[in-house]
Specification:
Layout (H helix, E strand, L loop, with lengths): L18 E3 L2 E5 L5 H10 L1 H4 L17 H14 L3 E7 L2 E12 L5 E8 L8 H14 L6 E6 L4 H10 L2 E12 L2 E11 L7 H6 L2
Parallel strand pairs: 5-6
Antiparallel strand pairs: 1-2, 2-3, 3-4, 4-5, 6-8, 7-8
């Protein structure tokens, strides 16, 4: 018989998780998000297309349905390689922040990617959301370094890393297959030691 208060251990450090700040909520993606997620993506198709990851020739096929996408992300979450958050603002799904390529061992490293509904752009949603996720990675997630890679042409995403105060640490030619071709990226990073009070506190201070 299980002792009182016994519970299964988390599948991976820091996951699953629900992060809340006022009307901004980040939580695990769910199959039930399908209609809202699909409608948001379709409404923002032109806005998002230049920055969308694509499959290069000979690459692995991407999920063909939202259910398959969620299944893949949830498996990766259980395995500890991904933290797939959706962003809710005032109860409405408006985007996504995903912690990718989590490496343990001597690295304790991950990368972060994100997208946002154009209708709420310019309201400071994404800097706050990314800051919340990075703070979570440095605390409950037990990671040490987070990297964000941005196409030089993506001025909106560059403003996010600027507001977060991430250092530019490199340049990666033909780094990711985006919008049908291999694209160069600027590389930004931050370590836990740089934000002992938390990255969200830095964003709040402006």
């Amino acid at each position: 018989m299980r002792p009182l208060g016994w519970a299964l251990p988390p599948t991976a450090p820091g996951w699953p998780a629900r992060l809340v700040e006022d009307s901004l909520v980040l939580r695990p993606i769910e199959v039930s998000d399908g209609p809202a997620w699909t409608a948001t993506r379709q409404r923002n198709a032109v806005w998002l297309q230049p920055w969308e990851a694509t499959v290069p020739p000979g690459g692995d096929a991407r999920p063909t349905s939202f259910r398959q996408l969620v299944g893949r992300l949830r498996r990766a979450g259980r395995e500890g390689t991904t933290m797939p958050f959706v962003i809710e603002l005032e109860g409405r799904l408006v985007g996504q922040v995903t912690v990718n390529n989590i490496v343990r061992g001597s690295a304790l490293f991950a990368s972060v990617g994100y997208w946002l509904d154009q209708g709420v752009a310019g309201r400071g949603v994404m800097p706050r959301a990314v800051a919340m996720v990075i703070d979570h990675c440095f605390t409950a997630g037990r990671l040490h370094r987070i990297e964000i890679c941005v196409r030089p042409e993506n001025t909106n995403s560059l403003r996010v890393v600027e507001k977060l105060g991430l250092r530019e640490v490199g340049y990666a030619p033909r780094f990711l297959h985006i919008d049908g071709a291999w694209r160069d990226h600027r590389v930004f990073a931050i370590t836990a030691e740089e934000v002992p009070e938390g990255l969200l506190a830095r964003v709040r201070e402006g």
